[in-house]
C-alpha cells in the first residue's frame, strides 16, 4: 500500500500512534515515578529493619567486648543483602566499635557521627550523600541506651537504579512494540474505512468525463454502504437524465432537419414562381395591337 505524506492513511497513523506514544510515555513516567518512590521507601525500611535486628543480635557481644563476633555478624548481614554497602557500629561516646569496610571507604562518607552520649531515647535518622559509588542512603539507628551509641547502615542505590533503568528500557520497548502493532491495525482499519471513498473518487472522475454507466458494489451496512447506495442512485438518475437529454436532442435535430427541408421547398417554390412570372411578363409586353 502506497501511503503518501498528505494522505489520510498517513495522517490517521500519525494521530493514532502519536496518541498511543504520548499516553505510553505519560503512563510509563507515572509508573517509573511510583516505582522509584516505593523502592526508596523499601530501601529505607530495609535499613531500619537491619539496624533493629543487628541491635538485638550484637548487644550481648558488645557487652562482652567480643569484637570478632560483632565483626562476623556484621559481615554475615552484609553478605545477605546486596544493597548494604557498609555497616558501622559506634559506642555511646562516638567511637567506632566495628565496621565492614573490607572493600574500602566510599568517598564522601562522613567519618563520624555527632557524639551520641547525650542520646537518651531511641530514634532513627537518615542521610543521603554522593560518593564514588553513586548515591548512598545511610540509616542511623540510635538505640538510646548505654551499650550501643549508633548503628549506621549504608545502602547503595546502584541496584535500585539498575532495576529502574531496566524497567525504563522494557517500557520503551513495550511502547515501541505497541506503536508498531497499533500502526498495522490502524493502517488496516483506515484502509477499510477509506477504500469506498477512493473508489467513489475514481467513479466521480469517470462521471466528470461523461460516463454515467457506473455502479459500485455495496457490501456494507454502515455509513459508507449508505453513501455508496446514494452515489449509485445519483449515477442512475444522471444516466437517465442523459438518455432523456439525448432523446430530446435527437428529436430537436429531426425537427430542425424537417424545418430545413420545408424551408428549402419553400425557397424552391418561390424561385419557380419567380421564373414563371419573369417568362410571362416579356411575352405580354411584345404582343401586337390589332387596329
Automatic annotation (TrEMBL):
<keyword id="KW-0597">Phosphoprotein</keyword>
<protein>
    <recommendedName>
        <fullName>histidine kinase</fullName>
        <ecNumber>2.7.13.3</ecNumber>
    </recommendedName>
</protein>
<keyword id="KW-1133">Transmembrane helix</keyword>
<dbReference type="GO" id="GO:0005524">
    <property type="term" value="F:ATP binding"/>
</dbReference>
<keyword id="KW-1003">Cell membrane</keyword>
<dbReference type="InterPro" id="IPR003660">
    <property type="entry name" value="HAMP_dom"/>
</dbReference>
<dbReference type="Pfam" id="PF00672">
    <property type="entry name" value="HAMP"/>
</dbReference>
<dbReference type="GO" id="GO:0004673">
    <property type="term" value="F:protein histidine kinase activity"/>
</dbReference>
<keyword id="KW-0547">Nucleotide-binding</keyword>
<keyword id="KW-0808">Transferase</keyword>
<dbReference type="GO" id="GO:0005886">
    <property type="term" value="C:plasma membrane"/>
</dbReference>
<keyword id="KW-0067">ATP-binding</keyword>
<dbReference type="GO" id="GO:0000160">
    <property type="term" value="P:phosphorelay signal transduction system"/>
</dbReference>
<dbReference type="InterPro" id="IPR050398">
    <property type="entry name" value="HssS/ArlS-like"/>
</dbReference>
<keyword id="KW-0472">Membrane</keyword>
<keyword id="KW-0418">Kinase</keyword>
<feature type="transmembrane region" description="Helical">
    <location>
        <begin position="171"/>
        <end position="194"/>
    </location>
</feature>
<keyword id="KW-0812">Transmembrane</keyword>
<feature type="domain" description="HAMP">
    <location>
        <begin position="191"/>
        <end position="243"/>
    </location>
</feature>
<feature type="transmembrane region" description="Helical">
    <location>
        <begin position="12"/>
        <end position="33"/>
    </location>
</feature>
<keyword id="KW-0902">Two-component regulatory system</keyword>
Amino acid at each position: 500500500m502506497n501511503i503518501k505524506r498528505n494522505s489520510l492513511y498517513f495522517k490517521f497513523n500519525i494521530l493514532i500512534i502519536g496518541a498511543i506514544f504520548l499516553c505510553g510515555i505519560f503512563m510509563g513516567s507515572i509508573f517509573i515515578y511510583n516505582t522509584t518512590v516505593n523502592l526508596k521507601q523499601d530501601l529505607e525500611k530495609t535499613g531500619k529493619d537491619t539496624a533493629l535486628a543487628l541491635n538485638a543480635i550484637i548487644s550481648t557481644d558488645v557487652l562482652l567486648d567480643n569484637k570478632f563476633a560483632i565483626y562476623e555478624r556484621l559481615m554475615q548481614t552484609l553478605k545477605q543483602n546486596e544493597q548494604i554497602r557498609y555497616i558501622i557500629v559506634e559506642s555511646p561516646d562516638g567511637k567506632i566499635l566495628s565496621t565492614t569496610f573490607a572493600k574500602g571507604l566510599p568517598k564522601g562518607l562522613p567519618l563520624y557521627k555527632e557524639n551520641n552520649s547525650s542520646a537518651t531515647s531511641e530514634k532513627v535518622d537518615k542521610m543521603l550523600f554522593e560518593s564514588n559509588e553513586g548515591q548512598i542512603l545511610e540509616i542511623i539507628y540510635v538505640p538510646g541506651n548505654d551499650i550501643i551509641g549508633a548503628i549506621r547502615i549504608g545502602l547503595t542505590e546502584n541496584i535500585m537504579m539498575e532495576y529502574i533503568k531496566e524497567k525504563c528500557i522494557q517500557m520503551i520497548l513495550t511502547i515501541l512494540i505497541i506503536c508498531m502493532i497499533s500502526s498495522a491495525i490502524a493502517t488496516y482499519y483506515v484502509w477499510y474505512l477509506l477504500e469506498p471513498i477512493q473508489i467513489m473518487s475514481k467513479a466521480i472522475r469517470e462521471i466528470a468525463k461523461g460516463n454515467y454507466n457506473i455502479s459500485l458494489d455495496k457490501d456494507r451496512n454502515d455509513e459508507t454502504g449508505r453513501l455508496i447506495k446514494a452515489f449509485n442512485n445519483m449515477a442512475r438518475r444522471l444516466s437517465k437524465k442523459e438518455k432523456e437529454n439525448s432523446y430530446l436532442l435527437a428529436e430537436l435535430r429531426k425537427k430542425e432537419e424537417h424545418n430545413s427541408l420545408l424551408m428549402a421547398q419553400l425557397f424552391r417554390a418561390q424561385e419557380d414562381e419567380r421564373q414563371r412570372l419573369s417568362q410571362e411578363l416579356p411575352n405580354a409586353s411584345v404582343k401586337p395591337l390589332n387596329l
